Amino acid sequence: MAAKLLRVAEGNAVREAGPVAPEKVLAGNPQQWTEHFFTNKKENFFCGIWSSDAGKWSLTYTEDEFCYIIEGEAEITDSEGVSERVVAGDAFCIPAGFSGTWETIGSVKKFYSIYEE
């Protein structure tokens, strides 16, 4: 069977919803939604759309992630206290080994692409 182009489009995703893990939450009661579009055969590459409402939580990355903010804004702070605000139209990568916090200001929606060794 020939490989086929897989469209990343609304309605072509596996949807999940739920709270951010309570042990990670630092402020608020953030809920998150994922529209997962693709996982490769090795199960180490993923892409989709993720969104959340207001809140702040700790995070530690074992994977590399490319993000493109579709709407809203967030503040990402590394373990040394350096913060960056990301807004609609921003594209960035979070490398494996990153630890710090993610704070959603209001609500945010991003396209993600994740690679894990």
Tell me what you see in this structure.
The protein is built from no helices and eight strands. The model has no long low-confidence stretch (mean pLDDT 93). The protein has one domain: Jelly Rolls, CATH 2.60.120.10. 0% of the residues lie in helices and 64% in strands. Strands 1, 2, 3, 4, 5, 6, 7 and 8 form an eight-stranded antiparallel β-sheet that branches.
Quick structural gist:
InterPro entries: RmlC-like_jellyroll, RmlC_Cupin_sf, UGlyAH_Cupin_dom. The chain has no helices and 8 strands.
Write the layout of secondary structure elements.
Layout: E1 14-19, E2 25-27, E3 31-39, E4 45-60, E5 64-78, E6 83-87, E7 91-94, E8 99-115
Antiparallel strand pairs: 1-3, 2-4, 3-4, 4-8, 5-6, 5-7, 5-8
Which labels suit this protein?
UGlyAH_Cupin_dom, single chain, RmlC_Cupin_sf, RmlC-like_jellyroll, Cupin domain-containing protein, Jelly Rolls, mainly beta, globular, 117 residues
Q: Uncertain segments of ≥5 residues (pLDDT<50)?
A: none
Task: Bin the helical content.
Answer: under 10%
Report the end-to-end length measured between terminal Cα atoms. Answer: 27 Å
Q: Please give the radius of gyration in angstroms.
A: 15 Å
Number of strands: 8
